[in-house]
């Protein structure tokens, strides 16, 4: 029997970005907040100072910052005709574990989704007619206009560097003219660009595009955020994504919120405590708390007035399934919503090799890049193209970590002397253009529980059934062709096009942008949570994170995840606390 | 420094294998000279070799390539079985000679067959072994020298990677000109060698 603990007002499951934001907001509102994190404590001086952080083998290849696969992983297959097998180690995506979650080891590329992204179904149907067969694309149920102040708050919390493209409706020449209106400019200027970005910008401009600096959570100058927390200027060391920043230069829960939150008397954090399931009362309509287990195997029942799932998208979805809240989606019948609309990100690249120019890509940062948005979302006419959605095209200089990044020209052997020669000759003289495409929801792609494989506690693993859709294959082919055109104009000796083809492969790293499974929407028949991220079925249960995206847009998700969190926090503070119950009544 | 797993015979075979993957040539030292075998030995002796952070629960089945590593053997045991099987195969096929004793052309051909999945080795998938071997060879060639590979920073010097440096702000405005910096590792410069 779990040992029963004293009740708290709010229990947060997981302690990454969304939990840190909610804990800060809800303790300020006077609530007692407890966060349960299954990983350990992590901070800059103790876990990734500059003398420790730049270690490629330890942090990426031995995966020190990521979830331990031995305890829990997921199984994967491309379609229901195959047997799903466990991802015995991480590959295509890297879920975090420990305080700060994946917010510690992200790159810091921080976007707002386009206004039309939030209305992907109605917008596209209106402009292009009915969606293609099998697409289960939906509107979010919340609009860009409603989220704008919350995007703004997150950008100021993080000290995002960038150039506005639309200030209160006034289009700014040097920013992204396609972006939704913003109530104020970015709090910091953009990063300092290097040779590769200059060449990309010139080439894109020559093709009639309007390149602009990518918005960055790596500090372009010293910054003090609205909570009074200081961040230091980025030193462009080239160890961002997959690494903790030793320099207090990358926005993370640790560098923006925790120095204030950890001192708050109403806030408690318990690390190395994994939540096993959500408990409910006899009606099933009210969460009574959670059951969690510590490293010694002792279980606890933690009662709470409000339960908020703040773990990674995959874990939030699985925790709902293991708690029996809601019906699991079945692709054969179309019934059930939990696990529905699992989406990812469809990426490709074009490498550019120079003969006598040096890109010196070791001098870089996670969000150092120039980009174009002409082919993102519905920024272009899709008539006759056979797909909806799009993505951005960017030239990043993020790193030259050599185990991971050693580009070779087309036709280079995979190993041996010729490989070695090609790596030596091209290492400092190459760059890459990335396309970062949307992923549209499809009836065949979903998450459910695996019938065979179990976690360390003996519970079923999550099973992922996913492949690229016809829509997304057409989309990525279109984006890759645009990137190829730019690459050819960047003045290199040659290019190498790396399109996204064949079935989805769960092993090569692509992005940690998994979405869907606990989708938001306008009514209980089409979604797991309402527009305030509140469970339709259990109104004192809220679900944060990219699991609520009905489909994924062509941008990195963190900015939108955070804006939705602030939006939900405001609804809880201003409405739910006054009148606990459903915030949307049908 | 570091724990050991491999026998002398296994190291001999591994030197030969990694020496074909990244040979010593006119561009500089290859994998054996960079300490890749030492690196792999230490890795196999530790949590990586034991598969402590991999999901190693049964059942084990052959998957599609997109499902990744599905061997029932954690890395250390995969190496042990594959190296033994490879040498047994060579002895039987090449008149009693070990892999390390073959001509380089024959060694390369065997590597190509393993890579393509065209070689059957007793009790182990040659293709899976090749994938892990190549991955660990690159790691050992380019990792921080702290781990026993990239000895004298030969991997970093080959490509011009300056290593674990803190601050590149002064060189950002290079405009395509070379930026040559002596590499440094977490323990210091290349001359700070601890064996």
UniProtKB/TrEMBL annotation, chain A:
Residues covered by the Glucose-methanol-choline oxidoreductase N-terminal domain: 231-340
Top-level taxon of origin: Bacteria
Keyword annotations from UniProtKB, A to Z: FAD, Flavoprotein, Oxidoreductase
GO MF, one annotated term: oxidoreductase activity, acting on CH-OH group of donors
Pfam family, one: GMC_oxred_N
Domain Glucose-methanol-choline oxidoreductase C-terminal: 443-564
InterPro entries (alphabetical): FAD/NAD-bd_sf, GMC_OxRdtase_N, GMC_OxRtase_C
Oxidoreductase recorded as keyword: yes
Family membership: Belongs to the GMC oxidoreductase family.
Stated name of the protein: GMC family oxidoreductase
Automatic annotation (TrEMBL), chain B:
The protein's name: Gluconate 2-dehydrogenase
Organism: Oceanibaculum pacificum
């Amino acid at each position: 029997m779990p040992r029963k603990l004293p009740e708290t007002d709010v229990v947060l499951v997981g302690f990454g970005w969304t939990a840190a934001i909610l804990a800060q907001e809800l303790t300020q509102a006077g609530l007692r907040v407890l966060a349960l994190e299954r990983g350990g404590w992590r901070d800059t001086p103790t876990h990734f100072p500059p003398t420790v952080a730049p270690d490629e083998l330890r942090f990426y290849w031995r995966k020190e910052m990521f979830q331990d696969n031995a305890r829990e992983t997921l199984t994967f297959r491309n379609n229901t005709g195959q047997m799903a097998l466990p991802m015995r180690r991480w590959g295509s995506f890297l879920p975090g574990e420990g305080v700060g979650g994946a917010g510690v080891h992200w790159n810091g590329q921080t976007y707002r989704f386009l206004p039309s992204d939030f209305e992907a179904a109605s917008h596209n149907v209106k402009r292009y007619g009915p969606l293609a067969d099998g697409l289960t694309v939906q509107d979010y149920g919340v609009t860009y206009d409603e989220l704008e102040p919350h995007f703004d708050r997150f950008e100021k919390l993080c000290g995002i560097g960038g150039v506005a493209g639309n200030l209160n409706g006034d289009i700014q020449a040097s920013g992204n003219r396609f972006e939704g209106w913003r109530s104020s400019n970015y709090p910091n200027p953009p990063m300092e660009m290097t040779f590769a970005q200059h060449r990309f910008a010139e080439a894109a401009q020559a093709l009639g595009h309007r390149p602009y600096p990518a918005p960055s959570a790596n500090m372009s100058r010293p910054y003090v955020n609205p909570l009074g927390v200081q961040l230091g200027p980025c030193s462009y060391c080239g160890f961002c994504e997959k690494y903790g920043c030793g320099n207090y230069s990358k926005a993370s829960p640790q560098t923006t919120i925790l120095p204030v939150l950890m001192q708050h008397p109403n806030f408690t954090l318990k690390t190395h405590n994994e939540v096993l399931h959500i408990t409910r009362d006899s009606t099933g309509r009210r969460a009574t708390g959670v059951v969690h287990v510590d490293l010694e195997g002792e279980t606890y029942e933690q009662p709470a007035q409000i339960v908020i799932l703040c773990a990674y998208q995959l874990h939030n979805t699985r925790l709902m399934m293991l708690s029996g809240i809601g019906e699991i989606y079945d692709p054969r019948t179309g019934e059930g919503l939990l696990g529905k609309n699992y989406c990812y990100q469809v990426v490709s690249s074009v490498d550019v090799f120079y003969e006598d120019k040096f890109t010196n890509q070791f001098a870089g940062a996670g969000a150092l890049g120039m980009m174009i948005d002409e082919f993102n979302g519905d920024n272009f006419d899709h008539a006759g193209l056979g797909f909806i959605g799009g993505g951005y095209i960017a030239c990043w200089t993020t790193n030259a970590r050599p185990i991971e990044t050693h580009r070779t020209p087309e036709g280079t052997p995979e190993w041996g002397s010729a490989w070695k020669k090609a790596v030596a000759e091209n290492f400092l003289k190459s760059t890459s253009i990335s396309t970062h495409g949307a992923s549209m929801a499809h009836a065949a792609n979903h998450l459910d529980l695996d019938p065979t494989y179990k976690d360390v506690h003996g519970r079923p693993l999550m099973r992922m059934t996913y492949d690229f859709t016809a829509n997304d294959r057409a989309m990525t082919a279109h984006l890759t062709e645009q990137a190829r055109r730019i690459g050819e104009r960047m003045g290199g000796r040659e290019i190498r096009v790396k399109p996204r083809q064949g079935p989805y492969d769960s092993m090569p790293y692509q992005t940690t942008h998994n979405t869907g499974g606990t989708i938001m929407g306008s009514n209980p028949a089409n979604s797991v949570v309402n527009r305030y991220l509140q469970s339709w079925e259990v109104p004192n249960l809220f679900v944060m994170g990219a699991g609520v995206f009905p489909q994924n847009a062509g941008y990195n998700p963190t900015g939108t995840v955070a804006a939705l969190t602030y939006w939900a926090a405001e609804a809880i503070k201003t409405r739910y606390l006054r009148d606990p119950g459903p915030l949307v009544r049908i | 420094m570091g724990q050991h797993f491999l026998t002398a015979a296994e190291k001999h075979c591994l030197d030969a294998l990694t020496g074909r993957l990244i040979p010593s040539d006119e561009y500089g030292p290859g994998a054996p000279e960079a300490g890749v075998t030492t690196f792999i030995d230490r890795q196999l002796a530790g949590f990586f070799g034991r598969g402590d952070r991999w999901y190693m629960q049964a059942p084990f089945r052959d998957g599609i390539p997109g499902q990744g590593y599905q061997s029932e053997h954690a890395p250390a045991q995969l190496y042990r079985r594959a190296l033994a099987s490879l040498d047994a195969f060579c002895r039987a096929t090449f008149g009693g000679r070990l892999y390390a004793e073959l001509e380089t052309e024959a060694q390369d051909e065997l590597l190509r067959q393993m890579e393509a999945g065209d070689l059957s080795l007793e009790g182990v998938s040659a293709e899976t072994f090749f994938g892990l071997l190549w991955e660990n060879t690159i790691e050992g060639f380019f990792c921080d020298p702290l781990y026993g590979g990239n000895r004298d920073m030969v991997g970093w010097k080959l490509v011009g990677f300056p290593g674990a440096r803190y601050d590149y702000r002064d060189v950002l405005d290079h405009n395509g000109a070379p930026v040559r910096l002596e590499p440094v590792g977490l323990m210091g410069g290349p001359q700070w060698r601890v064996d």
